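Complex 141.
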Amino acid sequence: MPVERTLSIVKPDGVARNLIGEVYRRFEAAGLKVIAARMLQLGEREARSFYAVHKERPFYADLVRYMTSGPVVVQVLAGEGAIAKNRDIMGATDPKKAAQGTIRADLAESIERNVVHGSDAAETAADEIAFFFRSTELYPR
Ligand code: CDP
Ligand code: MG
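Predicted structure with magnesium ion bound:
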């Protein structure tokens, strides 16, 4: 399996509930490497743009409000099959449907407040990494 990079976000609920370390522990235990990381608070325009794919969905306005409600931690994860591996570690969007032992099954409060974001495919991973990081901010360069 090729080495891939994927974008991950510890969402505002995860940061507020002191789950940054628990989320990172799971990435590292699964062999994913954090090759870039930053804390920031998304502005409304940024959040709307990041989730533009969902702009026609009924949950979009609430999603933007939630994602701008507090700081997030964004990171690039690298490793073999990192995109799918991260999605496996995260679990399904709805914590009620997520497999036992996944971040969302174990830690999420609701389908909206579900602790983490993760890119879903190679193309979105590249776009989402570029949304937050310059190529010179990824290690090793
Ligand atoms: O995050 P993921 O790729 O698993 O799910 P998505 O379908 O791309 O949706 C993006 C985010 O919108 C989710 O992670 C939830 O925070 C939120 N969402 C929601 O509030 N209600 C839904 N019915 C679906 C998604
Ligand atoms: Mg998604």
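The CA atoms of residues 72 and 113 lie 13 Å apart.
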